[in-house]
Amino acid sequence: MSTIFFFLQLNTIQAKSVLTNDRSLFTYEINNLQFSHDKLNITGWGLLQNTAHFNGQSDHQYSLTLDSGDHQVKINLKKKRKNLNRLIHYRGYKRCLDHSSNRKSCNYDFTHVGFEGVIPLNSLKTNRHYKVFLTLSSKKMKTNYQTSIFYPNDRQVTKSVYDKTYTLKELSKTKTVIVVTHDTDNLERFDKVVQL
Question: How far apart, in whole angstroms, are the C-alpha atoms of residue 97 and residue 172?
Fold first, then answer.
């Protein structure tokens, strides 16, 4: 009888984290932030300019972090094919080489820069103001870039579910927050969308 041994070595890629509001570095747009029955749907796109190609399903990942200070929810977002090559490129520059990074004299591919996701409303605690952060994790750059999201809206959008009220509110010209409150009056107005 012979014995076979297996050795398993786990390698972890250490990634640094960068918190930024510099839109020239971390460019993004929230196309839609909308309540449905018991969730908040989000769609948009994001990219890092002059850093690397974003043309595959495995070279980067998007996530949302909702942080109230004492409670945090992290939601992984699904990547969508969104091609921004025509919008974000410099005329006269050639395409960057496949394995290049941090070049400013060539054009990177931005063909998979869309995202979508769902925030389950029951994952949020009452009587909290959640700051919302978008994170783009770049495997090539070994860096997680995070920015607070801003979703401009003409009106405050509110959703009532049972005894909770969820409100999308502009905190400043660079931040949007989700406010969750407990309101017993809302039990009578179950699941009514109120737009002020």
Answer: 39
